[in-house]
Amino acid sequence: MNKLRIGILGTGVINRDFHLVTLRNHPQAEVVAAANHRPESLKRLAADFNIPKTYTNFAEMAADPDIDAVINGLPNYLHAPVTIQMLEAGKHVLCEKPMALNVAEGEQLIAAAQRAKRKLMIAHMWRFDREIVWLRDVMASGQLGRIFKVKSHAIWLFDGPRPGSWFVTPEFAGGGALADMGIHSIDTLRFILGGARPVKVFAHAGTFFRDIPLDDTATAMIEFEGGVTGLIEAGWYHLYADGLEGYTQAYGTKGYARVLPAQLQTSIEGIWSVTQPEMPKRQQQCDLPMYQAQMDHFIDCILNDKEPSPGGEDGLWAMRVLEAAYRSAKTGEAVDVGWK
After folding, report:
1. What is the reported pLDDT for 268?
2. Which tens digits make up the pLDDT trace of 16-45?
3. 79 near 95, Cβ under 8 Å?
4. Which pTM does this prediction carry?
5. Element (H, E) at 217
6. b or e along 69-104 (b: 16 or more beta carbons within 10 Å of the residue's beta carbon)?
7. What angle separates helix 312-331 from helix 103-116, to the nearest 10 degrees?
8. Are 320 and 188 in contact (CB under 8 A)?
């Protein structure tokens, strides 16, 4: 059968080191075009990955009839408008997180996908990590009893975005470490809890490590339906962390489990046992196999008319929590997570 023709939006690390690599590995995908505002980086990307067509005008890419789907790895402020532009032109979209700068923009994305009858997937890649999936399955099996607390860590140790880059520019990024790193933890907690609805958020955010206009440190406590408490730590440039990005824990009335590294603590035949399930060796913290599984899922959904997960609604839940967290950090009060 003919290959799915893919266009790449953006020339940053997420596309260069992850999305393009996974697309090259997929037998039913072909990267046929790339677009970026900066022609210099666009030219380098096209040369490095043998991409035949390039655009510095997103409208021209949207109008290209020989592109079936696009990967939106542009800066955050371009996620919503360019994704909507591509959807309205009849293209399926895998959009990087956060899906938008605010909840209102996120709702517009979902409406555009529904009108166009095209697939919209949000790139919360931790849902495809083998250890995170194992943790979700352990929790769902009942081995841990009733879950009452979950934690997720999103810390970038010793490093972070370069001061002056779009990542730390409010009008381009929309938020700091919580929006960049912590939003993955928000989605991860919902995922391992089986899609539980967040009800209320209390958060604190501050800037402690660099002279930047956005938060480099954030802590959020989320109340989920069913009485589960979620805790998130997000940060850039930190000198210590209990666990690196993706480190996630679940506490139940009958046991405890964590991932990165994976461990299960439960009672087996009356004896409290600590076991470490065998997992494939990771090459790096944010390992390529989860990005590959994410891309495989996106392509499968298009070719076989399936609904992507995480889809637009999942991305919107993360945006609701993020927006409520920043409001809480500003007011010093817990904020309800609005949902319909």
Report:
1. 86
2. 999 999 999 999 999 999 999 999 999 999
3. yes
4. 0.96
5. strand 217-224
6. bbbbbbbbbbbbbbbbbbbebebbbbbbbbbbbbbe
7. 170
8. no
Tokens describing residue 323: 């927006």
Angstrom distance (rounded) from CA 129 to CA 304: 22
The contacts of residue 190 (CB under 8 Å, 6+ apart) are 196, 198, 224, 314, 317, 318
Helical H segments across the chain, by residue range:
13, 20-25, 39-49, 58-62, 79-88, 103-116, 130-141, 170-173, 177, 183-192, 288-303, 312-331
Residue 339: predicted pLDDT: 62
Q: 162: buried, middle or exposed (CB in 10 Å: 19+, 13-18, 0-12)? A: exposed
Beta bridge partners of 229: 149, 223
Residues in the chain with pLDDT values less than 50 = 340
Tally Cβ neighbours within 10 Å of residue 253: 9
For residues 201 and 93, give the distance between their C-alpha atoms in angstroms, rounded to a whole number: 30
Note the pLDDT tens digit of each residue in 207-265: 999 999 999 999 999 999 999 999 999 999 999 999 889 999 999 999 999 999 999 99
The answer to whether the CB of 220 falls within 8 A of the CB of 259 is no
Of 8, 3, 69, 64, the C-alpha closest to 33 is 8
Which residue segments constitute the domains of the chain, with CATH numbers given? 4-118 (3.40.50.720), 127-289+318-336 (3.30.360.10)
Please spell the DSSP secondary structure of 32-86, one letter per residue. Answer: EEEE-S-HHHHHHHHHHHT--EEES-HHHHHT-TT--EEEE-S-GGGHHHHHHHH
